[in-house]
Structures are given as structure tokens and as C-alpha cells.
Amino acid sequence: MTTRAWQNRPAPPWRRELAGFAAVGLLAYAVDLTLFTCLRGPAGLDPLTAKALSFVAACSVAYAGNALGTYRTTRGRGWRPYAVFCAVNLAGAAVQLLCLAVSHYGLGLTSQRADTVSGAVVGMALATILRFWGTRTWVFRAEGRSGSWTG
């Protein structure tokens, strides 16, 4: 049996980076959803307060996961990287809200399904691209890498 050369090559660094970023993002999403549900339901908080608290918790989990895992070799010091990370995530949240607003109010697609697709599918996809680029460009900069997709 022969082994093909392409099967033994390690994955490019940007693929490992993207995989780590995605894994951390899924964990942060789970924290956001779980905490929001608990704060909204059993704790009885209003939706905006519950979402604000769950967003801050999810941002903190995502930052810790990326700083200690995905970008452990390019970690900055102090509060600045965390603040920039939160700003990038707020920009991502704004993208999701903008997609929802355009679909719901601009295009008149007002069903629950349309809101879900525009906010949680299209908006999430665009926001994830923005968050990945912003995180690697402004928060966890590596020497010799200026934020390009290929590292």
C-alpha cells in the first residue's frame, strides 16, 4: 500500500487557527445561550439586561479561550487586548442586528423563520468573518502577519 504525499502534510497554520477560533466560538455561543436562558427564565431579568450580561460572559469566555488556546503565542498584556476584543465582538453583534433590521424592516420579511435566517444564519456568518479578521488583526497580532487570511 502506498502513502500519498499530500496525506502526510500538516494542515496550514491558518486552518488550525480557524478551527481553534471556531471551537472557542461554539463554546462562547453555548455560554451566551445558556446564561441568557437562565437569566431570562428562572432569574426573571428583562431581555436586554439578560442579553447584556450573557454577552459579557460569552465575550470573556471567548477571549480566555483564544488567549490561552488559539492565539497563545501572540497574546498581548494588560486590558487593551480584552477591550479591543470586546469592541470587535460588539461590531459583530451590530452586523447581526443590521442583517435582521434590513430583512425585517427594509425587505418586509417578518416571519419567525425569516428573522432566524437573517439574524442567526446570514448575520452570524458575516459577523463570524468580521470577528475572525478583527481578532487576528487587532487583538492577537503575530509578527510578520498583517491580518491576511493566509497568515
TrEMBL record:
<feature type="transmembrane region" description="Helical">
    <location>
        <begin position="54"/>
        <end position="71"/>
    </location>
</feature>
<protein>
    <submittedName>
        <fullName>GtrA family protein</fullName>
    </submittedName>
</protein>
<keyword id="KW-0812">Transmembrane</keyword>
<feature type="transmembrane region" description="Helical">
    <location>
        <begin position="117"/>
        <end position="134"/>
    </location>
</feature>
<keyword id="KW-0472">Membrane</keyword>
<feature type="transmembrane region" description="Helical">
    <location>
        <begin position="83"/>
        <end position="105"/>
    </location>
</feature>
<keyword id="KW-1133">Transmembrane helix</keyword>
<feature type="domain" description="GtrA/DPMS transmembrane">
    <location>
        <begin position="21"/>
        <end position="140"/>
    </location>
</feature>
<dbReference type="InterPro" id="IPR007267">
    <property type="entry name" value="GtrA_DPMS_TM"/>
</dbReference>
<dbReference type="Pfam" id="PF04138">
    <property type="entry name" value="GtrA_DPMS_TM"/>
</dbReference>
<dbReference type="InterPro" id="IPR051401">
    <property type="entry name" value="GtrA_CellWall_Glycosyl"/>
</dbReference>
<comment type="similarity">
    <text>Belongs to the GtrA family.</text>
</comment>
